[in-house]
Amino acid sequence: MNVLNSSSGMGMSLHDMMWVWSKNIWEMWPGFLFISLPDLNPLIPLFREVLEEIGGELSRISRLSEDALLRVRRAGRKAKRAILLIHAGRLEEARGLIDEALNEFREVEEIVEKERYLRSLPLKEAYEELSEAMILLSLLAGSKPPTPEELSIPPQSYVLGLADVIGELRRNALDLIRAGRLEEAERRLGLMEERYLDLTSVDEL
Q1: CB 128 within 8 A of CB 161
Q2: How many whole angstroms separate alpha carbon 111 and alpha carbon 120?
Q3: Tens digit of pLDDT for each residue in 29-50?
Q4: DSSP string, 11-30
Q5: Closest CA to 199 of 161, 172, 169, 146
Q6: What is the model's pLDDT at position 6?
Q7: pLDDT score of 8
Q8: Of 145, 151, 106, nearest to 130 (Cα)?
Q9: What is the pLDDT of residue 12?
């Protein structure tokens, strides 16, 4: 190969130039390639201890998550059964089931409050079921409907539960019509219309 066009490399091949360059680097940092690394062996047990602690914490969180999810599903099932009891006219039994569902939720909320890793648990659907059961019960029992604050339920879940109540009122009106109780059925349809109008006033769900 011909020489490079520089005064310092005049007459030198590229191979020679690379050799000189590497020699200069070597002379500038003679110990560069021989930096000694610390002995890592004493650190290995420390890493094992950390990983063991992490494993124990993950197992604990997993157990808490499973327990919380079990309670959430149980609360949702109780709310659904309460709705069936309401349609059967067994309001006191329905109230008891709703109270049990509320207690399940309170326990879940206590767990989630203490464990930030569990704050992504899927509670939305169960919240809606509970809202639906509570609102339906209050409407058919002639009592004041609970507020989202009283139930400790997110407003969006409460509104969606109210939307489901409209369908339940329709179902109840049809049951009354089949039983020949037309005046009561008419009142249920009136309630249904009022709740629908209430929902139309809500801008965002």
Answers
A1: yes
A2: 12
A3: 555 555 555 666 666 777 777 8
A4: T--HHHHHHHHHHHHHHHST
A5: 161
A6: 44
A7: 47
A8: 151
A9: 58
